[in-house]
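User: Hi! Is it possible to get a structure for several chains at once, not just one? Here's what I have:
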Amino acid sequence: MSVLTVSGLAKSFGGVQALRDVNFTLAAGEILAMIGPNGAGKSTCFNCINGQLRPDLGSVTFAGHELIGLPPRRIWRLGVGRTFQITATFGSMTVAENVQMALISHHRRTRAPWTLATRLHREEALALLDAVGMRDQAERRCSVLAYGDLKRVELAVALAHGPRMLLMDEPTAGMAPKERIALMALTAGIVHDRGISVLFTEHDMDVVFANADRIIVLNRGELIAEGTPAAVRDNPMVQEIYLGAGSMFGAAAAGAHA
Amino acid sequence: MGFYVVQFLTGLASAASLFLVASGLTIIFGVTRVVNFAHGSFYMLGAFIAYSLVKTLPLGPTGFWVGVVLAALAVGVIGVVMEVTILRRIYQAPELFQLVATFGVVMVAKDAALLFWGPEDRLGPRAPGLNKAIELFGSRVPEYDLVVIALGFVVLGLLWLLFNRTRWGAVVRAATQDREMLSALGINQKLLFTAVFFLGSVLAGLGGALQLPRASVSHQMDLSIIATVFVVVVLGGMGSIPGAFLAAVIISELSAFGILIFPKITLVLMFLVMVVVLVARPFGILGKPVPDVGEPVQSDETLTRLPSALGWAGYVAVVALLLAIPMLLSEFYLVLWTQVFIFALFAASLHFIMGGGGMVSFGHAAYFGLGGYGCAMLLVRAGLPMEATLLLAPVVAAAGAALFGYFCVRLSGVYMAMLSLAFAQIVWSVVFQWSDVTGGEDGVNRVWPSPWAKDRVVFYYLTLTLAAVGIFTLWRLLFAPFGYTLRAGRDSPMRAESIGIDIRFHRWLAFIISGAAAGVAGSLLALAKGFVGPTWVDIPRSIDALMMVLIGGVQTLVGPILGALTFVILEDRLSAFDYWRSAFGLIIILICVLMPKGIVGSGRALIGRLGLGGGGER
Amino acid sequence: MGPAREAGVKVRREDYMSQSKRLVGMVAASAIMIGAAGAALAADPIKIGEINSYTALADFTQPYRKGWQMAVNEINAKGGVIGRPLEVIARDDAGKPENAVSIAEELVTKDKVDILAGTYFSHIGVAVTNFSKEKKKLFIATEPMSDDITWAQGHNYTFRLRASTHIQSAMLAEEAAKTKAKRWAIVSPNYKFGQDAVAAFKRVLKEKRPDVEFVVEQWPALGKIDAGATVQALAQAKPDGIFNALFSRDLTAFVREADLRGLLTKDLVVAGLLTGEPEYLEPLGAEAPQGWIVTGYPWYAITDPKHKKFIDDYQAKYKETPKMGSLIGYVSIQAIAAMIQKAGSVDQDKLIVAMKGLTFDSVAGPVTFRDIDHQSTLGAWVGKTAVKDGKPIMVDWRYTQGPQYSIPDEEIKKLRGKE
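Assistant: Yes, the chains can be modeled jointly so their relative placement is included. Here is the combined structure:
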């Protein structure tokens, strides 16, 4: 049974067709990777799903709800968590408060005028931080954290409202290779435990092939391949785009202008 | 028909002189992002200097025009002095500090003019050779007006050539778009900024000097022009020279023809047009969104925690001391401290949205004034008792904040600030010109407290109670989920949205709450003085609030209170001097230059640097 | 402030006192003054808190300041009043009622003044008179002309010296009624003074000449006139009479534009309130309009010996010609001194009793503070403007006392009764 169904998605920017009739689904508990060279339309596709952009055509349904036309915050309420390519946290708050903030919003208490925010949902927040291995840093300010730690905080924030699906835009961008594997392994573990579906984009093919249940490949706004990691790796069209340099990762940048 | 042509030309002549001044301001803003309040003072100084030069130089056209040009150049030099000695040191500070520093310059310039030219108005000679009018369709148009119109077009053309046909102009335009690129290109940014200030100030000085044959040179010229010039610059699009020209024409013609139909509300018309344009086109008629150079308020700084138990004990001790003041000090200090409380509440209300929400209001006086006028109207005109008006006045202010805030929270940074200023000016022009209802310039009198609260001691306690409750509530809100939500929106709008927060809505609520608190302060001041007038809503009042918050420190809780205290006490101590404004202005400039985090913030930073405190984790 | 600033800027340039010394200002300087007057004045000074627009409307208020300083010096040199010297604590309100009220409060609570006095602009006068009523502090409104001060908002604690808006406008209306002009235009600053003046002018002119009509009104904001457009708008209506209540910088800008744009034709009748006062007429120099019916102060033509002596003394002391403000400033102190003399103390109630109906001999002739509305009978000079030897003057003038231009007593009682 699919959680997310994307059908006929199309978007153009001033005559440039960024997305063209994109269709795919995401099953419950599945980890789906979206790959493609730079400029393939991954970000556009992602932003159409999370509400940042409105596509010209097509539909995105999540658990029976049409997402097109909803602002990001409404999509979040339906049970969609997000992490960003460049981490976005609340720099003036502690790690725990960042998670508490998401919990406050989840429990619809953002307008509460009197209770002290730091005392709200604290146990729940600490449990989440425990899950991502950040509990010992709960009282540090986000503005002083290492980048890898920020990524974990983001993950905890994204998990706060018990989402059914996570949208992760290049979750390991900007991290050292070792950390990348560790973060994605952590993520995979958590989502499998909780039965959360994940759609993520990624440049690091090691990360992709290690964690994805299924892969879709975009090129010039079109979905050109879809299947298990093994199937995608063997797909000649994918190889044509990515190969050349031998390694899929190294070829990614060159392929953008091919 | 002929009449309308002549009226159009009259409007065009005003437009030309307005454009000269506005083009200077828009160039300065476009490149340096400094909202230069001193621009009006430069205009005034241009007129005074030209007056002295024209009186000294030989009579005749040569003497006159040489005088005008020299005056403009002299003002250019003054602008350079301000840029090099003050602004250059604080380009790294939040934008608002530069604004406040230029406001300090306004005060210094005012006293300098008093010192050199005396307090009396000065009427200069008419322009030699241009002291007649020519006949046009049966009406007469002064020759000088035509010359000024021509000059306006000439300056527009020259500026266009400068910016579009010279390398320097290309560099300046590049700087308007992207500051970083300048250093990449190996251009000396310091020199460029100084040159831009020179050019902008020359234009202000020229505009002032050209007023000489038209009207007396007076000490009121500075603030009376600056509001109009802001309208022109914002309406045209900040940084856009053709925009400034277009806006100057619109505003001037609106006034020229407006007085035929609505002779009493010309100012309201002007600001109404500004608001309508800004709501539809936040970046002005010909403006493009400029990239924010940085947040108007440094958001990497953080609000401190709510005070600890020890801290609360400290506050309780302070309040206890304040409660004892009537027993310790003379009556006059009651009056003074009453004012401190009122302004502390006002500053805290602005701090609530600035510090908590990262929203800058240049027009917070609007809500202070709505509270004050609301109180006065209900008390004097509707005859309600004071107790009822104290409850209802904040509602009036909150209603205004709800209306204006609805539009303001859709923008950010300097555009939000400018829209809020425009709204405040609407309120100002309405109370200033709708004299049948608001008393206009005369204000509303007899706004006295109920008999039980008339006594200065009782009123002191009343004010202390309301201010303390108000400030405590605002603080509490800042640390409640609501305040955290605001801060979330300030720190990372994208993240806030993606955890389900409707940022605009929360900002709007914050704006309303802040407006209500400002309204309480405004109504208390009305009751303290028994009077409300347009000064409740004017630009200096909004700037006062900004200064209190910034002087104290935006990212601290007690900052605004200490800011208000400093402000009121300084004003009281200094106003016995002859040249107290300049002393006040200098102190403000010094604080801006030396303590860019405000008194509390800089004090804390100093403690942190000395390794005395633990909180400075960065 | 105070005498440290004496004679405005001219003196200040030679004055090398440090700012901190200036802070002591009034107190120090008056101490010197008292010292000079001798040991007889060792008694506590009588404090007068003087609030005025010394920087916002210096043209009038600086001569005014010189006027009261001269009177204070003279009185103190003669031993003061009831054996005590007068001390004037002068403060600048910057033309803002809010400031004026704050200063009044400070003067009362901090400086403990016995009497409040001054204010130039009408709306500031009204604000301070309301303060005086509320705080039960005597206020001598020396310059502000608003009718409300003595009528609609009149009360026990305020007395006014200068001839009111109504009185001066009525004088002009009387003269205007004698002309042929029927189609009248109005140009007036949009605040209390202007509104009162226009209402009074219209009322009196209509009474005397039911056939006149008012064809256009222009109400520029005080100090913010858009002169060219305003003149053009007036000219458009082709009036044959204009009532002008503009003064100071609004007036100069208006006159220049009106002249250039041909509004001021030969046949046009112009009634100009205050235009004949030297502070507003002199800056115009040879450009001053001629033949306007104005109220003002033709000091150059005064022959009454007592008044002449004041004018001569003033010129000798300050090396400049007197203005209307000089006279008002001087007579203010004369009035206050006379009041205290009659009361024999500075007890507020006694002062009020003394002031009601007080008649004193001012340099401009005997003046009475009327019991009915606390308005003094100090009159005004009505005449026509002319230019002689390149200097603007008033000609064909006459001096008239105020009361006959007032409204009926019954009406006054009704107005004051409301308060």
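Confidence is low (pLDDT under 50) at residues 244-258 of chain A. The radius of gyration of chain A is 19 Å.

User: Great, thank you!
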